[in-house]
Amino acid sequence: MSSSSRIDQIAGHLNYPKGLLAGQVAIITGSGQGIGAETARLFAKEGAKVVVSDIDGKKASDVADSIKAAGGSATSVAGDMLDDNYINELVKKAAEFGNGKIHIIVNNAGYTWDGVIHKTTDKQWETIIALHNTAPFKLVRAAAPYFRVKDGEPRCIINISSTSGLHGNAGQANYALAKAGVTGLTKTIAKEWGPQYGVRANTVAFGHILTRLTAAKEAGAFITTPDGQKVALGIPTGKGALASAAAKEQYTDIPLRRPGTATEAAGAVLAVCSPLFAYVNGQTISVTGGRNM
């Protein structure tokens, strides 16, 4: 084949009139807001049937409804990722929604529960490890029958990580370990399920993205644990705010000189899931605006 013919063939493959993810069924955890919600909406725009998973039933329903109102296909399945029964229900309902198929899992659900090492409690430690490591593993394990198949259709798993997992971060020993851990899970999935079934698994590690986890802690955002304890979210003194001059100074180590948006973060997840990344497997993609390069 001549080089020009090869270029024409590639160009043809890049034409997806029904969307980059047309016909694929995607579970996106933690998609009631933030990066997860933007990922759900973007996937739907690209033709995916989206399963919106979130602990907050109203937020999950609102995202699914907004997708359907825009002409997309979505359903919401609310529940706690720390509940084994919910994970099984999520997989079951996703497969029913997808007529017996699941193509994509985005393990995005999570939050931070910070503390310096000598003051971090067992509960803080165990909750964050369970949420960011054990729950994604259990979801992938439960969905194995829908990924270990040979039907010629694409299958992709994305585990969301953080620069805290790549470089560590003061006050986040639990979160840093958990986010480092998902890279090992990703590589193992790629090595186990890639050879026979063509499953791709990659990690997307975010830097400073504007979400409730990086907004001003004084704004009052919080998570309630299953036993009713409130965990405050955000960064003290409003370091997540984009507008103030003081806040802008913290971005001097980012070559783009600004934090990323949830929409930009979602775009990176879409890119990795898409056929444009069909030969990218077992990798950690840093989405940081150039920080830590």
Automatic annotation (TrEMBL):
What SUPFAM superfamilies does the annotation carry? NAD(P)-binding Rossmann-fold domains (SSF51735)
Question: Does the keyword section mention NADP?
Answer: yes
Give the family from UniProt: Belongs to the short-chain dehydrogenases/reductases (SDR) family.
What this protein is called in its record is: 3-oxoacyl-[acyl-carrier-protein] reductase
Reaction catalysed by this chain? a (3R)-hydroxyacyl-[ACP] + NADP(+) = a 3-oxoacyl-[ACP] + NADPH + H(+)
Query: Which is an annotated GO molecular function term of this record?
Result: 3-oxoacyl-[acyl-carrier-protein] reductase (NADPH) activity
- What keywords would UniProt list here? NADP
Quote the InterPro entries the UniProt record gives: KR_dom, NAD(P)-bd_dom_sf, SDR, SDR_fam
